[in-house]
Amino acid sequence: MTAGDVDAVVEIDGTIESLRYLHVEKSGEGLALTWAIQERPLREKLIQPNAFDDERLFGLKQVAGGIDEGFAVVAEHEGTVAASAVAQLDPAAAVMRLVDLRVDYDFRRQGLATALLFQVINEGRSRELRAVSAETSTNNIPAAELLRKCGFELAGLDLQRRSNHDLVKESVTLFWYAALS
User: Fold this and answer.
1) CATH annotation of 3-179
2) What is the pLDDT of residues 122-159, one digit of tens each?
């Protein structure tokens, strides 16, 4: 990926569609908390645009422009950008942090996301990092399934990353890691 690809990457239709979500249930109090995560059906099909927020767009521009160290790659089909992956290097933690992975709606279910994610993992290995990290929300089951399929393990959650009411809205941030050692 080059800085010239940024506009095409932003135009990728990364709409999230799902009939299920991951329900997070908290029990206990103080330091004796436990969390249960279960896959459940949604009341109605989720169709949510996955537009770039400011943080992901900034990360994309920094890595594609060579300002931040990381890894960015696009997959093209007949001269059109069909998919992309962007990861930033976190040298202090020895981790490659996946900033964004998206496949255009018309090119899904063809293995592009898997191929791009394995390229990110291989880049992390070549840099002798300890892990690749990623974040998803509980309403993005396709992303969670992809990460699990590619060897990522669920490592934690944050109820308040997007607001103070995420548990009620059933949108919790999940943290994933794929150990590279």
Assistant:
1) 3.40.630.30
2) 999 999 999 999 999 988 999 999 999 999 999 999 87
